[in-house]
């Protein structure tokens, strides 16, 4: 676990839980509003929910994808397929750290061929996780289109990748850590920033 | 979801997998959990992940093998490693080259791992001291076969759930089996109770002291164990192959006698299934149908024989991943200096 490295960690959830709580930039209500707006944007861009598949990137992307799917169902009344896409085996930094156990990949029965796949993650940082996710996705089929939805975009891209739907753009220093907590794993929903120059 | 779903649980993996004892309970858990994810790759249309791209794995087999060698080869290929098979017969060994020279020659080519099966117990340990590459024991003499034990545990867990507190009976030629030792270690580390069953002639010498030290049970009475007369009922039954080459060794007088005393015959199977329909039957293969296991038992709904083979690839992918994919940790104590000389 090396949260300080500019090279990607799988998600901000890997930041050190022992550090102080830092500055809260999004509370539970903000996260809920951001997700509802993203859900609207996904539907608007897709002109409805037809052919949509949401795939969360473990670990925090998975509950976010499920929440988005539930909101979309609430808006449109139709269930949309939701799953998870683990990228551990596709990382470009495998040799830089001890191996970690991969997380489940669950592709919905509908598959991804010809669908519009929305990848969902909590934090967009270097872009390497998304690159790995695109490789992983290609091994499961050929979507008609792939979009990216993230709760937080903190900048510092190392690859030419951008998100289609962003909950909050968060200018950060690389020395800072962004931590996303979700009630599915943690005590409550929040996004905090810790560390960096004070 | 609990905290265990966190992706950050990291167990330090050994450099080599020579013995099941190289993996502590946490590492065994990690390997089995990873195997479950690898199993999904097996069901994909495109069975290829890029994880070990650029790594070279040498399968060095000095003894015959179908499933172990092919599953290691498939596992490596599905993970994009380059795998090369070398058998004792076709190699320079048949011209009299020593094992040490053979492995050091191949090691000097810059390979990343050796998967070795050898007739001599301890051969893999020796090789690990001679080469810079990782070494995985694919069966050495009558000593160990750790990946077999891992796939056995994986297969049983898939059917039974956690092995904690479960009772596993291992039956057959304990004296010549390398599967037994590895299985004993992994099953006990996973919390299972183990009973070893064999005729007195097929028990390894000194096993009594070993059983006492490690806390497993011994029996010569298969029916007694299966009927739960000696402790708790059996949840899993692992039949070992009777190595036909032992038949002339005076270990038992006739095949018929062995089958009557220690084979999983049709009546034994019926009795067993009636007692516990959930029981699982394993066999590391190759099977001698009609000797240690009847055809009915081998093909019964309770039989996991083909699941074991299927799990073999996933478990070996997991082992290769954890040994080879991570950061290049400095070797401790196993590297010989100036090995390229």
From TrEMBL, chain A:
The species this protein was found in: Knoellia locipacati
Chain residue ranges for the region called Disordered: 1-23
Catalytic activity: UMP + diphosphate = 5-phospho-alpha-D-ribose 1-diphosphate + uracil
Pfam families named in the record: Pribosyltran (PF00156)
Principal EC category: transferase
Protein's gene: pyrR
Ranges for domain Phosphoribosyltransferase: 31-166
Family: Belongs to the purine/pyrimidine phosphoribosyltransferase family. PyrR subfamily.
Gene3D superfamilies per the UniProt record, alphabetical: 3.40.50.2020
Database matches in PANTHER family: BIFUNCTIONAL PROTEIN PYRR
CDD domains membership: PRTases_typeI
Motif (PRPP-binding): 117-129
Keywords: Glycosyltransferase, Transcription, Transcription regulation, Transferase
Taxonomy, superkingdom: Bacteria
GO MF, one annotated term: uracil phosphoribosyltransferase activity
Species lineage: Bacteria, Bacillati, Actinomycetota, Actinomycetes, Micrococcales
Role description: Regulates the transcription of the pyrimidine nucleotide (pyr) operon in response to exogenous pyrimidines. Also displays a weak uracil phosphoribosyltransferase activity which is not physiologically significant.
Keyword Glycosyltransferase annotated: yes
EC numbers, comma separated: 2.4.2.9
Name by which UniProt lists this protein: Bifunctional protein PyrR
GO BP terms in the entry: regulation of DNA-templated transcription
TrEMBL record, chain B:
Entry annotated with the keyword DNA damage: no
Residues at which L-aspartate binds: 95, 178, 241
Pathway(s) where this gene product acts: Pyrimidine metabolism; UMP biosynthesis via de novo pathway; (S)-dihydroorotate from bicarbonate: step 2/3
Residues holding carbamoyl phosphate: 67-68, 117, 145, 148, 285-286
Pfam families tied to this protein: OTCace (PF00185), OTCace_N (PF02729)
EC code(s) of this entry: 2.1.3.2
A Gene Ontology biological process term: 'de novo' UMP biosynthetic process
Keyword Transferase belongs to the record: yes
Keywords per UniProt: Pyrimidine biosynthesis, Transferase
Classification via InterPro entries: Asp/Orn_carbamoyltranf_P-bd, Asp/Orn_carbamoylTrfase, Asp/Orn_carbamoylTrfase_sf, Asp_carbamoyltransf, Asp_carbamoyltransf_Asp/Orn-bd
Residue stretches making up the Aspartate/ornithine carbamoyltransferase Asp/Orn-binding domain: 165-323
Catalyzed reactions per annotation: carbamoyl phosphate + L-aspartate = N-carbamoyl-L-aspartate + phosphate + H(+)
Gene Ontology CC: one annotated term: cytosol
Domain of life: Bacteria
Domain Aspartate/ornithine carbamoyltransferase carbamoyl-P binding: 15-157
Broadest EC class assigned to this enzyme: transferase
Single GO term (MF): aspartate carbamoyltransferase activity
Protein purpose: Catalyzes the condensation of carbamoyl phosphate and aspartate to form carbamoyl aspartate and inorganic phosphate, the committed step in the de novo pyrimidine nucleotide biosynthesis pathway.
Family: Belongs to the aspartate/ornithine carbamoyltransferase superfamily. ATCase family.
Subunit-structure text: Heterododecamer (2C3:3R2) of six catalytic PyrB chains organized as two trimers (C3), and six regulatory PyrI chains organized as three dimers (R2).
Protein name according to UniProt: Aspartate carbamoyltransferase
Protein encoded by which gene: pyrB
